[in-house]
Amino acid sequence: MAADSLSTGPPATGPGQSPGRRWSARARRLAQRIPPARRFPLAMAAVFLACSLAWWVAFYPGLMSYDSFTYTWEATTGHWINDHSIPYVAGVWLSLHLSGTYAPLTFCQIVAAAGLVGYLAAGLERFAIRRRWIAGAVVLCGVLPPTGEFFVFVWKDVPFVLGALAAAGALLHLVGGWLRVPRSARRSAPGRRAPWLVLGVGMLLMCLARNNGFLTVVCTGLVLLACVPWHWRRIASVTAVPVLVYVFLVTVVYPAAGVQPQKNNSAYSFFYADLAYGYSKDPGLFTKAQLSAMAAVAPLEHWRTAGAQCWDSDPLTISSQFHAAAATTNRSQLLSAFTTVLKRAPQYVADAQLCRAHNAWAVFPDHPILVAPVDYTGPYHAAVVSHPELAHNPFHQAFHSRPLSRTAHRAGHWWYDLSRTPQLEWILWGGAVWCYLTYAWILRLTRRVRRRELLAAAAVMAGLQLTVLIATPAPLYRYMAGPTVLGVLLLPLACSRLRLPEDPP
Fold this sequence. Notes:
The chain has 505 residues and is an all-alpha fold. The chain has two domains: 35-261 and 400-458 and 491-495, no CATH class; 266-356, no CATH class. The chain is built from 25 helices and no strands.
């Protein structure tokens, strides 16, 4: 009788249930349809997407910088120039013509970031890490201003970091698979093809997102080769193919499509900055011919005063006293002068390089790290001065913020300002600390498991750091955004329970 009375109650999802319970039951049924292996990465992707949507609502249609308006000027006025990522400029053009705003582009960025974070989280599971720690790292990455708000920027650095996320996630999957193969058979087990394909796509995205992205790809490939040399064929493929595709686009496709070659001196600004620094230290290093070439480009006093500081190459090259056309004409003599400094006083070149890249190696930087502001007026007005056509651009309304929630905008601005506390800058915006932490976790695991393959998990991080150490114009946060994002997401490696294969679990 009691059993009959119980069976007469309303069904689990019947009309007697509250709307909340019905939606909960539908969500559980939907979750049960997802394969178990995909539930956790999809959940992590959803968590990160929720955090990113909060930033997107607060700074709709996206955060902007001087470069954002330069992309718009190039895309909407027919000035397609290969000084920025052409695929990304094309994305800006498509977003503006579809909606009149940057919103579709920035929304696609946060969706792609969420998917790649979920993929990386699945790779971390292979290292015997509790899911709670992985989830905590994902939430932390989505909440912190340096990492959470970054994917809302209209910046070519965003797809560059997305490529680094894809490559790092693929390596976690590969390394996790290699560790399950006996040491004696590791040379004959390259791993599944899917992670290698994702690794190649990530490398290609890094090449296409930045003109110097190929340098990061080459550095990452060399580090991988040093870690797992027995997989050299596949490493060569995922390294060489993206670089060759980039070279083919730059030398064949872009000129055929009418894209103008790079006209400024940004590719040589590092050499000119090192030259100016050497001149400020010892003017007697140079010959009369070299000094004449330098004077034809800019007054020697400008070379000396601009070179006296080593933090930024822009004061030298982005100045009315520096003539870009004359620099192109006298390029051979200027490079000869740089070679003179490198041969006779290499300490000046090393000093200038390490000075500009201090946020890539210094734990406590002794110079402020340059971070893009979250306001729009300064970059916009500076861009209009350089590109007057922007003032009458038909997409003028897209250049300004229209937050979907004023409360969210104020809260996001407050949280960002709090993160700029000088005492916190070294860890939140520096990037170098996250590199060292990641190396420490991976080295500790390598000593515990005694498998050399584990070192490959840090290859992308090392490639990103080496690129900044080799060539960077200034200590800009965006150049170390990739290591910062990866460092936060890889924090759970500190909680890995990996042991030697013969040890009990």
